[in-house]
Structure formats: C-alpha cells, structure tokens
Design goal:
Blueprint (H helix, E strand, L loop, with lengths): L2 H7 L12 H5 E3 L5 E3 L9 H12 L8 H19 L3 H4 L2
Length: 94
C-alpha cells in the first residue's frame, strides 16, 4: 500500500449538524449585542430569574465570544430549575 492509497482511504467527511443542540436554542444572539431567551413552557414563569442572573454575570459583555458560556449557564439553570420543580428535564423540553 502506498502513501497515496493510504491517504485516499483515510479521508473522512464530517457530517453537518442537522439540528442545533438544545442549549443553543435556549439562548441565541440577535443583533450585535442582544441575546434572546427561549425557555420551555414550564420554566417561562421563572424567566426573570435567569435574565437577572445573566445580567449580573454578563453585564455589558453580551458578545459573540461570551455566548457559549452564557448558553451553558442557561442550560445549567434550566436543569436546576426543573429539578427544583420536580420535573424531568427531558419532559420539560418536549
């Protein structure tokens, strides 16, 4: 087997994501420095709590660079809030 054959047989294609991960849907970037929350129905009544937390942590830093961290924080908050309410997170996001 030559190096060329090996190289050609090892090429792989990375499949493109079909759907975004759920945490990417909870918090999205809209416009240059605006973030938008989309919580599942059972958590909407508590949305102000997450907004307050995000404001406290990311005040003035709603940049694209901070979005992944804010998305993870939002996901953790949602999971915790579901646990507090006695809800299954999987059931909550359906």
């Amino acid at each position: 087997m030559t190096a060329t054959t090996l190289t050609h047989s090892m090429t792989t294609s990375v499949p493109q994501r079909q759907q975004p991960h759920y945490f990417e849907e909870i918090l999205t970037q809209s416009g240059g420095s605006q973030w938008t929350l989309s919580l599942p129905a059972p958590l909407k009544a508590h949305q102000h709590e997450l907004e307050s937390l995000l404001t406290k942590v990311f005040r003035g830093r709603c940049s694209p660079e901070n979005l992944p961290l804010a998305q993870q924080l939002s996901l953790n908050w949602c999971m915790s809030k579901c646990r507090q309410a006695g809800l299954s997170f999987d059931d909550c996001i359906r």
